[in-house]
Every structure is written in C-alpha cells, then in structure tokens.
Queue: 3 jobs
Job 1
Amino acid sequence: MISIAFLGLGNRGRGYLRGFSRQEDVRVAALCDSSPPMLEDAAGKFPKARRFGRDEDFFAAGRLADWLVIATPDLCHVRHAGAALDLGYRIVLEKPVTADPMEMEALCAKARAAGGELLVSHVLRYSPFFRAVKGIVESGALGDIVNIAHEENVGYWHFAHSYVRGNWRSRAVAAPFLMAKCCHDFDLLHWLTGGRPCESVSAYGSLRYFKPENAPEGAVSHCLSGCPHVKSCPYSAEKLYLKKITPLFWGKAIAAGLPRAPAREDMRRILEHGNYGRCVFFSDNDVCDHHSVAMRFAGGVTATLSVSAFSLGFTRRIRVQGTKGELYGRDHAMRIHLHEFGKLPRIVRVRRGNPFSGHGGADAAFCAAAHAVMAGAPVDPENMTTIEQTRLSHQIVYAALESIETGRTIKMGGAIEIPGYEKNPG
C-alpha cells in the first residue's frame, strides 16, 4: 500500500487528491490546508486521514506517509519541499518550483543529497496530444528538427480571472506570469528538442492593457458597485461569474474561496467587494499580459514561444519543422497535421484522455505516471519531469525574465539573476 499526504487543497491540490486516491493501492494518510472549508470538504471523503490547518503543525508531526503532494501557493513551494525532504518524504510538487534561480539550485542540491524522488507536475508533457507530437518527432518522420513555433492563447476571460484579479496577479503573491503559466511550455520545448541545452534567449513582454489609464470613463473599483459598463465590458465580473458567457465554470468556486460554486446571490455578494469582482483596470496586478520569447538550442535548433492574454479561446498551437517535413496542430482539436515532404499530407487523430481530467486528460495521465513511480514500476527517466529535468527548463525561463528586464540577449551557461525580483521573505 502506498501512503500519500496532501499539503494544499485548492483547485490543483483537490485534483491530485482525486487522481491519486482512485488508485486501489493508495491510502490517503494526511490532509493539510489553511482554509477550513477546503480541509473539511476533503476530510469528509477521507475520514481516516489526519488533518491539519497549519503547515507548521503538519511538518511538526513528522513523516506521515511515503509521498507528499505539495500544491500550495507558488512562493511556498521551495520552503515546503525543503521541509519535506528533511523528513524523508518523496515528493510530487506543483509547478513552478521557484522564480528564484538560486533557490532552484539549492533545492536541487538538497534533493540530490537526500537521495529522494522529487517529481514536478509539468502535466502537459503527459497529455495525449503532446505525447503524440513527441512520438512523431522521435519517429524521424520530420528528419532533424530545425524550428519549433509554439503559441499559448490564455483566453481573455482566463487571464482576467487568474492573472489580473486572481492568485497569480502579482509578483508579491506568486511567480511571474512567464514562469507561473508558461513553465509548462518551456518544459515542452526542451523535451521536444531532445533535451538539447539552450544556448541563448531573447525575450519581450509588458503589461500592455490592464492599467488604470485604459479604464473606460466612469469605471469604478468593483464591477457590481454601480459601474456603468457592467453590461458591455467583456471583463465584467457579472458576465464572467454570473452569466454563462465564458467557460469559467471552474473559476466560480475559486473566486468564492469554496470547494464548490455558491448560489447565484451569494456569488453576487462575494463579488461586490472581493478581489474577483474588481475592475480589471483598477486591480493591483503587475504581471505582463503578453510575451514573445526566442530561443536557440544546441545544434542550431531554434524555437519561439508566444503567449498572450488577448485570445478568445484557451488553447495551445504548435508547429514543428524538420529537414524532411513539418507538423502542426492545436491541442484542444486533438488532431495533428503531418506533412512529410514528397508525400501526401495526412491527419493524425489523437485519442482523448480522461474527459473528466484537466488539461485535456493530462492531469490524469500525470497522476498515472507518478503512481507508476510510486509503485516502483520501471519508467523512462527522460520522459519524467523530475526536479533535474525541471531545473533545465526553468533555467530558460530565468534567462527570458532577465532578457525582458535588461533588454539583452542572454547567453546561457552562467549565473542568471533577475533584476527587480524580490525573494520570498517566508
């Protein structure tokens, strides 16, 4: 029997709890969250699990399980992972690890010294769509890879929810947007290039739109406090949370701070004065709303990442070009257009994963892969997002952040510092 403890029971933590607890050989040993509603809701399903409302009490109790799943806020990840390693836990850690390169190196060194396993949940690498892309690349159908163009469309409604009003709106409370949202994508690019070292990075990004000077005339601090634009503004909290305008069904519970979405009138009262009801032009957000990153990998392979708040849908597109062909596709479509030079084009249809799993089935696939590690099954280490694999892709993000701050192309291989980044004092 595999025993697992869970630290952090928000949206991501509860997803991992569902994913791992479905396995017949898993026992949920302990649950910890600072939110009483979240803790009580999870504990109701696992009455034999020990429960803790404070992380200090959880760690003071000693090692309670074989594995620990850490899904706490970004700025707590290194502290919690370090304490878990000290107790001898093997760890599944929610991404990102940290926006501080020195913290990353220190945690990697600690994990090596402890000899413990530390997996990072870059779930997209496990998605059926990107696994299919990887399979085509490795088959040699495209020849030698020359260039990858990757595009992440965040969705205007998703960006407003998470990165203007929500938990990732500011460096004061979370990792920078390029790290918090796109470390998935940098992991994919590093993986698809065959783990080649990245040699140089040049990046751009800014907070272009969600600022007070762009507020429409007469806008007020909260959408439901008499704003004259509440019916017309696409970012109106009324439209996003009280009407079925966008697929933000999962965001209502998060906005309310509850395990499930409250009744409509209760939701309205929460939005009238809460963070998720604020005008997107008068929030305390400071993260960039668009980025462009260019990378050169060893062997002359180049890649670009474009990410933007200003899209209708929430999807990723990718184009991989090689010496013998190219492929392109969109993850939500679950189809890959494959063009081998000199042959008729064909469409590779990807079988969807668990329809009830997030990220197009990737969350369930990640839990299955991590469970295989927990059970001692043989796995391919190059296809697992270990802390060492994550260290390499995180380094690309550090270089991109430095490039944005300094306006320079960053040569990889040396120490990377991010000007203006303040380490979490906790």
Note: The chain has 14 helices and 15 strands.
Job 2
Amino acid sequence: MTVRIEQVTTKKDLKRFIRFNYEFYKTCPYSVPDLYDDMLNTFSPKKNAAFEFCQAALFLAYSEQGDIVGRVAAIINRRANETWQKKAVRFGWIDFVDDIDVSRALIDTVKTWGREHGMTEIEGPLGFTDLDAEGMLIEGFDQLSTMATIYNYPYYPEHMERLGLTKSSDWVEMKIYVPDAMPERYQRISDIVAKKYDLHIRKFTSKKEVMRTGMAHEIFRLINDAYAPLFGYSRMSEKQIDQYVKMYVPVLDLRMVTLIETADGQLVGVGISMPSLSRALQKAKGRLLPFGWFHLLKALWWKRPRVLDLLLVAVRPDYQSKGVNALLFTDLIPVYQQMGFEYAESNPELEANDRVQSQWQYFHTEQHKRRRCYRADL
C-alpha cells in the first residue's frame, strides 16, 4: 500500500485521530473505548499537565484513496528521560490496518521525529505518563479489556517484530478471585503487621472530607514515592496531582478505598478499587451524552458488574515487603464479598516486580493477559 503520513494540526484532524480507534474496533467485543472528552483533554496542552515536561506530535496514515488506515502519537517525556538517563521518543495510541507498509510508515515517522529532537531510541506503546494506558497486548486477545488498558488486534505485535523492535519490558494481568472466606494465614499476617508496626486502617465516608483533609493529594504523593523505581516512571507534578484528584475522587465509592496509617497519622499504604466500567464504556461508545452517563452511573451505583478493577495499590518504600498489602486487602475483601464481586482485574503489573506478584500467593488467580513495551535504537 502507498501510505501518506500527515501530522495532526487542526481540531478536525484531532477528532479524526480519536475517532479512528472507535471505528476500527466498533465490532470487536473485547475493546473498551476511551471517553471522547477524556481523549480531547489528554491531547490538549491546556488541559493535560503532563505537557509541562512532555512534547508530542500526532500523525495519521492515509491510503491512496484518502482513507485513514493508521494513527500514532510521538511523545518525549523529558522528566522520564532525565530520571532514567536516556534519550527516548515514545510511540503511543498506535493503531493500523494489517498492512506492514502502514505500520512501518507510522513507526518510521516517530523515529524521524525523535531523531529531529535529538533522541537515540524509540520505545512503546507508552503514554505521556504511567497513568496513561501502556503496553501492547501480546496474550489474552479473547479477554475483555479494562478502562485503564489498551486492546489491540493479534497482528500488532507481529508487525512490531517484523519491524525489528524487541522486548523492553512486559506487564502481566491477573484475575484475582474473591475468596468465600479470608485465608487464615493472610489474616494472621495482617494482624501481626498491624501490631508490629503500630498501623491502623483509615476509611473515609465523605468525599468532602477527603478533599478538606488534603488526603487525596497525599495519596498521589505516596504513589509518586512507591512507583519511583518502576520501569519508565516519571514523578507526577503537583499540577498533575490536582488533575488526577479532580478526575478520580468524584467517581470513587469510598467503601472500596482503604488507607493504612501509622500511629501518628502518616500515610503508608493505599488501595483504590472500583467496579469495572468496561461493559458500561462499550455501551456508552465513548460518549457521555446523550445516554453514556446513564450506563456509567448504573455500573458504579445501581447494578454493579461482577468484576472490579484494582486501580491503584501503593505502599511507601520503607514499608514495602513488610506485609502492608495484607492489611489493605483484609479490609477490602469483606467489602468485595458484601458487594457481590466475583473477581478483581489486577490491571498491568510489571513481570519483574516480585513484590507485587507475591501478594497474590494466598488467592486463586489466573494470569489472562500479557502486554509488552518494545524498543529499538534510532
């Protein structure tokens, strides 16, 4: 195929960039569309605080007939590059028809853009930051995606390998089944940890209180510290934290949020979960209006699905590997039981992160997806 690549420069082009994914996957039963307005905000330097330390360019691929056949974002996260001592251009939000000429044109465009900006390697799929969806699905193509992850057709990773990109890092995703009864050993570990380190559980019942006490911001600062050593992570700025607080707090069911504090009130652990919105987002088709909001609210409050998403789990570095996770989930599991959930989606966990993998050893689990970050030298 003869392919023409054009950079997105107008709002009309941006709408085409976003809508291409919706159209491309509209008959796929496993893909979960992003909300259109969220995507507009993500790519807006005025709305997305990540543009403080990122620059980006969006590209569309056109066939000879003028049809859109692919898209890709090229991103430079200067903070991540400084942290990890590299000069990497990221590719993200990549979609393409099953034609190697199209995928090659998209990847080559990102490579060229990266070289023009002094980069020496390419990696992806990655977003602006770690709270964007990342990693190309390489296993689990027959599994429903989540609102925090990417779904892609099975031929995508085949194209990456044909184009000479190799594995940089893998994430795995687990189904963690809610037990009928708390595992005795798990409960015992929780009790020992609470007593040994003088820790207690803190719950909120009012979102106003979460905001008034500043705890919402403290949670994201804790995430900054906990995730700092993880692959490609760049610390969130205070402006980003403000952005995520406004995004997440309004939709949380506080029963599904657990905090762990020391005796003097220092936050050392947090677990944030929510009912899966995957089916609701499919029904909404990327739109809140006219009726998309109804499907989302129904899933959150009225008729919950049997599946929950573990959105964020974080423990302060000096309390990691001490069993704090057991304290979190001995509080949350009875909540999950009461609310009728069958299993939790872990969302992506780094394959090499043994601390995270080990926390599920007392539960029945199933690894059902794997995704990969690819790289190549420029």
Note: The chain has a mean pLDDT of 93.
Job 3
Amino acid sequence: MSEPAPRFDASRLTGDDPPPYTRIGSESDNPAFVLVCDHASNAVPAHMERLGLDQSELDRHIGWDIGAAMVTRSLSARLGAPAFLSGYSRLVVDCNRPLGSPTAMPPVSDGTVVPANLAISEAEATARTDALFWPYHDAIAACLDRVIGAGAVPMLIAVHSFTPVFQGFVRPWEIGLLYEHDDRLVQPLKDALDAVQPGLTIGDNEPYAIIGPSDYSIPVHGQGRGLPHIEFEVRQDLIGTREGAEEWAVTLAAVLKRVSEELAPLAIEHRIPTGVGAED
C-alpha cells in the first residue's frame, strides 16, 4: 500500500522554509517600473516532501519558470525598480492563476502526476493560498497602491519563461509579449526590441495569450488599475544560464527605458473593449 500524499500544513512551516515572497530593489514611492516574477522558485515546504515528486521534476519547467528569477533580479538592479519574486513552486500554488482555476494546484502537469495535488480538500487549498499566495499579491498591491497614491504611474512588468518545444512543436519565438485588452506597450516594445536586437522573432500573445481567467498578476494588478503593463515570456534555453539571463536583462532594460521615455508621461487608462460586460 502506497504512502499517503504529503499535505500542506501552515503550522509546519519552519525558519528553514523560504518566505512566501521576496522583495528586492528600490523603496521609492515613484519608481518608473514595478517587476513581478510569479514563478520564480521551485521550492516546496519541507514537510510536503517534494509533493511526492523526484527533484528532477521540480527542476524542470513544471516546477517553475527557468531563468525568470535571474532575469528579474538583474532587471531590478538595472532599472532601479522594486521587484517581487514568489517563494514557492507553481505546483504548490500557482501565483499567476485565479483562485479556483484547475491549474492553480494541478493534479497533473505536462504529463506528470503530482501526488500531493490529488484530491486536495477545500480547507487545504485555502490554507495554501492564505500562506503562500495572498502574502505575495498583497505585497504587490500595497506597493502599487502606494506608488499610484503618490502620483506616479509605473509600468508593471511580469517576467516569465517558456519551453523551446511543447508537444512536439518547436516554438520559433525568442520572446513573447502578453497582454489582454491594453496593448499600448506592444508596438513600442516590438519597435524597441527590433532596434536593440534586430532579427528577433517576437510573439504577439504567443506562445500564450492572456484571456479572461487564464492569468492573475497582469489582469488584476496591471489592467485592473489601468497601469501600462506587459508580460514578458522569454524562451528558457536563452536564459537558463546566468550569462544568458544577464544578456537578456541588459536587452530588456534598454528596451524598457527607451519605451518609457518615448511614451512619457504615462497615464492611468482603463482599456476595456466596447461591448465587454462585467460578466466577461
């Protein structure tokens, strides 16, 4: 008879477990940029015994966004921007999924069964989100609300990464620009990327698109506040090493500074398409 799957218990978190998020960078009330990295870590609370998985599974893309944290940390330093990095694996709780989404605590991810995510009770799901999801998002919300309250309009930048090949399809993009209703940064970013690194294949809502309840950070923190925003998806083979992550941080910092200067002054704009109701 197999051992029962390890379950989350907030009371069993210890000082050896990471915090639910890490904040780095500027403490300014008027930063030009605020960065978030929803899948920064592949850590699992020690008492959950790697969710019943081999470490090799947590080390691959189902456990986190490979390279994204390194890019975010370097970008934060180069832009003088506050950055928020999630503390735990997306398999424990996905900080870029609305609560109740079937992929928020997936029982299966890219063909891998996650034992600790099978038959999660409502109480355990709530405990995971209370301990690991809300502290991260509450900190981001508090920062943005304080900055907006001080009269600044920062760009909200989410940093993610994607696999070079998915279900046999070789993805041609080096970087994707993701958004939902507000596309004001998209063409300026494409133009700046073309100028800084000519020849890039840039995905427009590729390899993923932000549609309705698919994501959390950009729709809630960016779009919901009317802030200019973008989600960067960088291909993992390009940023899986420190050298590659640094190169892309240099590129993205140059691009973001250029676009910020070109579009100044930025404004709060709630761009919801005509005819879209509250239920959509």
Note: Confidence is low (pLDDT under 50) at residues 275-280.
